[in-house]
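Hi R.,

Here are the chain sequences for the assembly we discussed:
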Amino acid sequence: MRWAVALVWLLTAPAADDDGPLAQLRRPGAPPRETPAETPVVVDPTSVPPPSPFLRYEMAPVPDRWRLVDALGVRDEPWNPYRQSTIKGDRPIFDDYFFNFSAILDTVYEPRSFPVPVGLQSTGRPGDNDAFGRTPSNVLSTNLIVSAALIKGDTAYMPPHFELRLTPVFNRNRVEVEEPRLLYADPSRGTTRTDQFTGLQDAFVDFHIRNVSDRFDFDSVRVGIQPFTSDFRGFLFQDNQLGLRLFGTRANNLWQYNIAWFRRLEKDTNSGLNDAWHEPRRDDVFALNVYRQDLPVLGFTTQATVLYNRNREGREGYYYDKNGFLQRPAPVGFERPRDYDVVYGGLNGDGHFGRMNLTGSAYYAHGRNRFSPFTDEKTDIRAYFAAAEPSIDFDWLRLRLSGAYASGDRDPYDRRETGFDAIFENPQFAGADTSYWIRQAIPLIGGGGLALSGRNGLLASLRTSKEQGQSNFNNPGLVLVGGGADVDLLPELRFSVNANRLWFANTKVLDALRMQEGIDRSIGWDLSAALTYRPFLTQNVVLRLSGAVLLPGRGFKELFDAADGDKRYYSVLTNLVLTY
Amino acid sequence: MRRLALLVAVATGLAGAAGAQEALSVTEVGQILAQAASEAEARGRPATVAVVDRVGNVLGVYRMDGANQADPGFSTLGVAADPTLRTVTVPSNPKGSDTGFNGVAFIPDTLAAIAKAVTGAFLSSQGNAFSTRTASQIVQDHFNPGEANTPSGPLYGVQFSQLPCSDLSRRLSDGTVGPKRSPLGLSADPGGLPLYKNGVLVGGVGAIADGSYGLDANIFDRDQDVDELIAIAGAAGFDAPTSIRADRITVDGKLLRFADAGRGSLVRDPANPRALAAIAGSVLAVPGYFSGTLQAGQVFLSAGSGIVRDDATFGTAAAVLLDQTGAPRFAPQAGTDLTTAEVRAILRHALTVAGTARAQIRNPLGSSAQVTISVVDGTGRVLGLVRTLDAPVFGTDVSLQKARSAAFLSSTQAASFIRIADGARTLAIEPSLLPYLTQAQALLGAGAFADGVAMSARAIGNLGRSTFPDGIGGTPSGPLSRSASEATPFSTGLQLDLVFLDIASHVLFVRGNAAADVATQCTRLPAPLGTRVLANGLQVFPGGVPIFRGQTLVGGVGVSGDGIDQDDMVAFLGLHRAAIELGTGIANAPAARRADQLTPRGTRLRYVSCPVAAFLGSRSSNVCAGL
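And here is the predicted structure of the full complex:
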């Protein structure tokens, strides 16, 4: 296969000219590089003569190579990340132990609108005679992410022997909405909520077991709260979770593998951060994956994975979130606490074929739900998902196409659940959080305490929430077709646009939950644009402004309305990230 | 295409409701009793079983020897134990002290069986099959029961309808016409099921063997309830179609419960029952309900059922009530403040709204709402009542309760009338009504129920729940409710206390301890024009609004039979559309007078709540906005 592709490349590649292969490397569309004319070497008789190979020199032992620069007068400047800094790991704190510290201040101000229910027991204003309330709301959320790591080993040319990392995140959030009972189950608590929470996003020890080749292929084990992603774009499971992970590489990093077990931590309701002070959820994820670089072609990595999600929350009784809403089991159908077992088989890829970049994912979910919310019996889970995003670059312009299909449940009252749901999705896809649909959670008003889709989620999975709810395979699925562009207007300024058309795959579940016949599949158009400004061309200061609008299609209009008559929904993100 | 499907659905609905001439025969009544009794015998759990038709005529009551409990009597009233009676006990209040019917132990088990059978028949229709277990799920403090922080069941309070004192509900002495009263109101005790024959609702069966007339407080487990198993055996061969059972119907996304067990849990094959004569027990006369001889049921929408189709009066498919002479009951008529034309227009527009409304509790999807609509004047006299063809029968009485409740509690005389009723108390067991007024004044101000605030049934419900705001634990009860620790579905508060003596004295009559049955009007509230203002009792769940002419209260309209949001919409929008057509000045309450202007303890009351996706074949929601 590789051979065949290489042959195609050879046949289609332009003939090499006399300047050698390097001269071919240029930005597409740019004129050929001009080679400066060779100038004859002139020997300067006043210059210092070259050193003699046998000259004697004085030797002075120093503790390590990092302190050499002391002698040159380079001082440690801890608060300047671009200078020599001990707290940035530029030199060891003792022996070959390094300390690395970073801090990120990430502030989001997010005016948005989404379908909002009028409180069942109480309303914001007199004359609220209907089910749909006023849609505007806004969020101001600040995360202070502090990360500290102790690392043993010179990271410059070999993997560290040991790493201990702690990343607490301090969050403060404030939400304002127009209707009571949206933020709190108790309608008398009003329409503004201010909350804060300290989450633990990393807390792990990484131990380098051994090197297995001269090229530092290795086996390592990592224990504790650690980041993990099941695929390149976070479609199935991307989270920082408590786990035990064995990972490593082979054949000069051509092969990579992960064998992992995660016991999922409870999430804080309002910040979405890990609640490490709470008993972990009765939910385990076992993951096994293998990455192979340059398969099928050079520059493309293929990954195969199997994940097993074992949920035993049927035994925990009723779990309410911080705001008083029932999270588990979902208040839907028979509302009985349930366990489930799902095995996901996946094939993922990321890289490029010639000039075309491509990322793709395909998953099949096979499992068993102990109690279907609709039949109160054991049901089989059989669902699938596929997504691809090809793109191509033209100098400062990247053009993208996105497509995704998540199967929907065909009949909630049968013995097979065919709606695809992830474990904990965090999709970097189709515009990601710039997109309205992916960014905003939309409550399924009149259909129970469910979200039609979760925050920072692609799937219309009908969970109580992405963060605290159980996976739900009785869902309408999703079809997405979209396109977009990233435009580097200036080196400091990137402009992105996305247009996604969305449908449900099958609305039978929605029909049943709403007692509403024949809800149309069309969700609508999701149009978005974003400006990313990096004034210093670094990640230390990033300012992002994005706006999205959902133009509802027929199905969405059949589901939702708004008290303020605005039939379009918007999402604006103002995001300032300051990094040390 | 969608519209065509709608027409087909409506047409088939009409055929199912009007075309089918099905009723239980005497033989079938005996068969149902024998099936139930055989299962009870096989389990060694003697039962009392009742069978009723769709309008509540009791067709048979069978008590097995030793069923339930020996009668303890009622010493508070000097009522001695009666060895010929078998009785049931209402469970004690698990939260605190017993009030209302909690802990009451002198109720004949025949009445419990009848109430359960009536509930199975009355809550069901051609589009929905509900059981007493369904009732249990929708009348408790939370929906679902046991789920904290959620509002109460949508039909909170419906158990105190079809009361034995109701002026609307018919009695045995009225012949076969219905809707009949139920001795204890509707039941939430599992073991009452609807009966279907060839897919047509023909009645209900109720069984009780455990001596406990309770409810299912924990719906998240699966019970093996002996009452329910016996009723399932009785209903075998008359089973509700799967597609319309409660467990195929969602309310706010939650499936309703039908039964926790199935045919597979029976210990005896119901297709092969023992003969009734071979089982130790007897068919038993029940005063006020059953002669002692098995009866055949009435065909629904035949004159004998007391409900007939009448498309002429409103120019659209509709059903009206008849008395035993065949004369119409509640044909549109003028009251002191409403003309016949106004009453007819309100009923007609409400019918039209119902006919296009998306049903919440009916299958197949795409069905329209089926309801009963009542219009009363400002004193609670009935000015008109009409039903859609397949409306569940319970809504007949309930719609009138809602209309009267909205009209009464919107009146400036409500507080003084309650004081009068309180002053008319004579027995120590009669609860005082004054605490409700005191609590209302504390919450709403000194003018509570005297200042003419327009109270919808929904607003009354907000004030009548065991917590305020509804469903939020740790808060004090609503002013019209018993305290949070006392309130249960057997002791709701003002609603029950207004009629407590009526129900209790009726039970004493059936027992043989009182010579006369309860009067045909409930409560001791005044009767300004000959009809007591709440002559069939107070209702505390949504679906009724007062009618105003300018700033003057002139009546009320009440709707019952589908989801509570649908009931609200049919009443509110029906009145609104009639007002526009008539141009005579009648209308919904002026916005500034409505209960949703009040924000007691920071929690605004609600006036009405119209449903999501309100109409079939239309995308419109928020259809009541700005009205």
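Chain B touches chain A through 63 residues (CB under 8 Å). The longest helix of chain B spans residues 564-582.

Let me know if anything looks off.

Best,
T.
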